[in-house]
User: Fold this.
Amino acid sequence: MMQLVDRCIRCGYDSDMESLVTSSIMEKVDLDAQNIYGIPALVLMEQAGIRGWKALSSLIRQTLSDQKRLVFVAGGGNNGGDALVMAREAYYDGYRAITVVLVGTRISVACTVQRKIIESLSLDTRDLEQMVDDTEKGLESLFDSAAVIIDGLAGTGLRGSLTGLAARLTTCINAAKEKGAFVCSIDIPSGCADSLSAAHPHVQANATVTMGLRKVASYHPATRLAWGDIILINPEFPSQLLADAAVSAKLCTDNDVLIPAIGNDSYKNRRGHLALFAGSKNFTGAARLVSRSAFHARCGLVTLYCDCGIASAISTESPSVIVHPLLESEVVAHATLADDYQSIVAGPGWGDGHEDQLLEILSSKLPTVLDADAITLYARLLSKRRIDMTVHGDLILTPHPGELHRFLETLSMPLLAQETGVAGSSESFIESMQKIAEMLQAVIAYRSHVVWIFDGRREHSVPMVVDGMNSSLGVAGSGDVFAGILGALLAQQLDVATAAMYAAVIHQSAGRLAKQEHGWFDSEELSTYIGRACRALERNHS
Assistant:
């Protein structure tokens, strides 16, 4: 075995990563702040509204004059009260074109106080319970010429889908956004509750000012866009309550990545050797993208096993890669793989008919990435009972939503396919993905505009999230780049879950750098930014 990089990280996640919690946990924090620490609900509401308006006003001040119209939509609960405080603060800041839309008949005590204050200021107030014209046209007129809409319609206490007037208002708010209004939601976009499907009515916000801790639902792939920019404030919840809150997931950013530095005396044999099974007659580019990305992610050696028909083309295009042509029925034995390499990537552009080779790859017990076609082949092996789900070493699957759906359908698991799809709720998505990872005793990196990482090797492991929201990364071959980064990190002996998290952060960082310089780019250009992303992360923690 080769001597590898001098330092390696085998830990799981950094405990300093930001916590993501359910709405019900934040409700408990709110109640505990009142009942244990004696902070009145009205004080929390005041601070939420004042600090929320300060955050929002700094965001919109450059584009909003005091003559442009602001509409505050206030339900009867605490979110509605927060919206009313924000309306008052906007008035105190000199804004006069303000309309307050009141919704609901069940009004909390604190919200009742805020309604009386708004009434005393003589702001333009529309109580929908007393509105004569509640037709669609009448509701839409409430938002005519609105520059900013503050959504305080419904918050974390929502237990069912928005219906009736609330659902119609949501439609109007979203229509106003389409016409150019800036929509800011308070705590959560109305309708984006943990237990509700993304198909249910919900507000599509440009920004969300969320309270206390970030909500795990805000990173559900099906509704992430609805939250827009997420701004975190604390309305004076005691720090101990926030620290003790039960965590549903951890949010990983550049600041949480500790890439081990490689010594100046290191050379190729100390930076890991990756075995790559990729490429086919129609997809020669996939192998090139994976190998280039692996090198840029500091891998020392890459050996590609591919069909004889494409070996010559790959050798010409990628002279740094060691190319091993394979005959149609030829298989590389697991013992050879275990002796010669530190990690394996299989699947990008691989095509069909490689089940026997995949069996050998899994039997090698090396840290292995199954990407693209290899995920489908693995599902077939499992469905035909040619291999047990737990017969492998450290294993990571990197499906995008479509690949995951096909994988589960092949395994005759339609319910899990449904729960992890766009119709599932945040709650069911997390629970189902963790169940799949535990069933496979593997790590799953679910790749979309938000990357979720589930570690099924350990009981009660906490999922990790890497936010994305960079549409420039949605380009052909981007997944191959991710696989190359991940394979390189595994070759450098990082723990598989840690490697998945780091690879997602590096991939996103490279995407941001490429976007800054090119706007839109192809995956070949993206791969050239990986080295810069790695170097920046090394410098951050040197």
